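Notes to self, Peptide ABC transporter:
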Amino acid sequence: MLNYTIRRLLSVIPVMLVVSIIVFLLVHLTPGNPAFIILGEDASPEAIAKLEEQLGLNEPLYIQFFDWIKQVITGDLGTSVYSAQPVTELIFGNFGPTISLMVLSLLFILVISIPLAILIVSLRKTILDPLFTNASLLGVSIPEFWLAILLVLGFGVTFPIFPVAGYMPLAEGFGPWIYHLLLPAFVLALVEIGIIARMLRDSMLDSVNQDYTKTARAKGVRERDVLMKHVFANALIPTTTVLGATVAGLLGGTVIIETLFTIPGIGQLLIDSIHRRDYPVIQGVVLFIAAIYVLVNLIVDLLYAFLDPRIRYD
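result:
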């Protein structure tokens, strides 16, 4: 297990290097000039050129890349050209709302999708099974931004039950914190609920008529115990793979949701930085998201050994 973990951690290095190259090129080849945006339309060409020199934007791309990557290796993601704050400080300063949104969304996903899948499998011979299949397909197909707009209009404007903008830190109290996050967290979770519930249901149906479940029933084990102790346990491994990708994908989904609900998190920081052509912040945020995605996938791989003792890593 230790050797496998070390190999996986070493394999992260080339992955992150490729990600950093792609991000750097996409950011710098996109039309727009940070110096022009900072100084405004009335700035003279001389002032813009001077600011570009101060920011190092007049250097060739490969020199800018190597200067940046040397900073990244030391843990320094650079400094924002807009606010002059360290990028690392900006990321962790905005990470609180994002992780709060992700945790609450993940809670929605687990609390709704797992019991729902188990219920549908237990009622697999009824009309609820095809209804669930169609409903889950509909849930997966709904765009997050469209659903968010509908919920904002329904529960924020027509029936003003929930706030549609802003964020309250957990330090201000659990009630205000969860009150501001319920609506965006539900929107972020809805698509993933359909995916996880459908995946778990399909995996359980694959196991429900296997020989070991027939043997358990022949021994007099109750159907509920067969589903929970045998079918559900064996369906966890493929579902864990999807759940791991879901957890990492939630971080990407926050970009849209935080923008729509004006939540000051990582996603909002990324969108604002794109508008400002704040290259260091864009590069740092995308690299941070990619690192979390890789880390989550590593954790999921290591979880397999705990979920299934037959799995061994050499």
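- Residues 21 and 65 are 8 Å apart (CA to CA).
- The first helix runs from residue 2 to 29.
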